[in-house]
Amino acid sequence: MIVLENVSKSFGSHRVLRGLDLEALDGETTTVIGGSGTGKSVTLKLMVGLLKPDQGRVLVDGQDVAVLGERALSLVQRKFGFLFQGAALFDSLTVAENILFGVRYLKPEALMEGNKIVDRCLAQVGLKSDVARLKPAELSGGMKKRVGLARAIAHEPAYIMYDEPTTGLDPMMSDVINELIVQIRETLKVTSIVVTHDMKSAYQISNRIVMIHEGRRVAQGTPAEVQATDNPMLRQFITGSSHGPIQTQVLKD
Amino acid sequence: MRPVKVLFRIFTERWLSLAETVGRVVVLLRKTVYWSVRAPLDRSVVFAQMGEIGVKSFPVTSLTALFTGMVLALQTGFSFRRVFNEPLYVGTVVGLSLLKELGPVLTAVVVAGRVGASIAAEIGTMKVTEQVDALYTLGTNPIRYLVVPRFLACLAMVPLLTVYADAVGILGGYLVAHGRLAVPSSVYWDEINAIQVREALHGLIKSVAYALIIVTTACHKGLQTEGGAEGVGRSTTDAVVVSMVLILVSDYFLSAVLVSFGIG
Questions:
Q1: ipTM, 2 dp
Q2: Which residues contact B202 (CB under 8 A, 6 or more apart)?
Q3: Are A84 and B139 an interchain contact pair (Cβ–Cβ within 8 Å)?
Q4: Spatial distance between the Cα atoms of B243 and B110, rounded to a whole number of angstroms
Q5: What chain B residue is nearest to A108 in terms of C-alpha separation?
Q6: Helices and strands, counts by H and E, chain B
Q7: CB atoms B137 and A106 under 8 Å
Q8: Pick the CATH number of A1-79+193-253 from 3.60.15.30, 3.40.50.300, 3.90.70.10, 3.40.50.720
Q9: Which residues contact A131 (CB under 8 A, 6 or more apart)?
Q10: Residue A169: predicted pLDDT
Q11: Going by C-beta distance under 8 Å and a sequence separation of 6 or more, which residues neighbour residue A101?
Q12: What would the pLDDT profile of B35-66 be if each residue is shown by its tens digit?
């Protein structure tokens, strides 16, 4: 289980998170929604220990990652698979090498079965084995996301983090990715934390949805509860309205 | 009073920023040395970087060193002929200048321009596209994976390139001294042979220091990159400019220290 307690994070004079509380329960998909710049991606990076909070605790299975040394943090980071917004595939490596990258360092004993792992991971994300020899530059946006997901699950992590998994994809490919997220949760029994502002995706994949605004949690609930909410902020966000308690900046000529 | 306060604030901020940068570079260097010693060496990656950093720098180093040696011989020969009526000491001047100063400095400047920019741009691009973050999540320390192979390759190849540049420069000097100034071959090569080992060592030690400057600056700038393509461009430029300035400034201090220890 991942728990964030009263977490604050600033970059220079810009305060991104202001006492955020959040829980991601085991085996569930927790989706974090909110407008741009509200600290959703920062929240994910805090959970993985890529960033350290200025205040508060980030507990992963009871361990506070904010106070861990480099080696201990590395051991915690092994529990995570991370699908980055732009997939973050290594350009100089082939798809197979990308998928096996984490296995090479996290489960070197499994490298003997490298080809099997590559084929299995590619199959799990709906790609054929012949993609394995391609370089990331030869892949489409949707394929890159799928390979990124294959890389994230290759070392069999306990947690998978998804940073805007459907951003930049067409609606059909978004649906494919959403189905993959659900399927991977069901088959691998992983805990997933998804950051998105795509509400269709959030309803489809989540067990619980948490909304962040101005660095704080302002609402949470199941997809059904969120759809029926009378919380004005959440309602404004899910309906995509520019009128409401959330101030939207519109530049006019 | 207000302008004084503002100036004081700016001055303080600049010094704090400089101190912070120096601190970061020292930490990077410490971690790089730690991983270089501790982690098992991925020889194929290091050899690939040696090819990228060293082998691909040979053509431009050859050209730079050859013409530097040639122009050095030409200027020395004509100047000495004007004073002494003969092109005296051309071999000595060319040899000592190249071995102690021009060989290491020019090689370092060439490598800083070609390799420093490339390292900063590559690591910087990986930083802004979250590939560096991806390394952490895949159980790999970016310093171990990205910095160490470049660090070791640079430390091996820059001194090697310097020795090569010295040889090519001396050969270029010989072509002009013998072909244009009519200095007898035996005179030129006797003067070169008279140069002592410690004088050649002077330049070699400096080349190791320059390698350290180039690779540390480039990797640091790359890992600190922020802000997309514009940030990558800024890091690349900074890496080259800072490396070159540090090479030229440290040249004086290194020379002074080495001479005081009787090396050169």
A1: 0.86
A2: B99, B100, B255, B258, B259, B263, B264
A3: no
A4: 11
A5: B139
A6: 12, 0
A7: no
A8: 3.40.50.300
A9: A95, A122, A139, A143, A147
A10: 80
A11: A90, A93, A151, B138, B140
A12: 998 878 888 899 999 999 989 999 999 999 99
Give how far A93 is from chain B: nearest CA, Å: 12
Q: How far apart are CA A9 and CA A194, in angstroms?
A: 20
Kindly state whether A159 is in contact with chain B, defined as any CB-CB distance less than 8 angstroms: no
CB contact under 8 A, B140 and A101: yes
Closest to B98 (Cα-Cα) out of B177, B212, B202? B202
State whether residue A77 sits within 8 Å of chain B by CB. yes
Q: Is the pLDDT of residue A249 over 60?
A: no
Domain boundaries, chain A: 1-79+193-253
Question: Could you tell me if A81 lies within 8 Å of chain B, comparing CB atoms?
Answer: yes
Confidence of residue A104 (pLDDT cuts 50, 70, 90): confident
Tell me whether strands A208-213 and A29-33 are parallel, antiparallel or unpaired: parallel
For residue A61, count other CB atoms closer than 10 A to its CB.
13
Q: Do B139 and A102 touch (CB under 8 A)?
A: yes
pTM value?
0.86
CA nearest neighbour of A31 among A217, A203, A242, A228: A203
> Please, which pLDDT band fits residue A248 given cuts at 50, 70 and 90?
low
Top-confidence range, A173-187, A225-239, B229-243: B229-243
Residue B129 has pLDDT above 80, yes or no: yes
Give the total residue count for chain A: 253
Instruction: Convert the pLDDT of each residue in B202-218 to its tens digit.
Output: 999 999 999 999 999 99
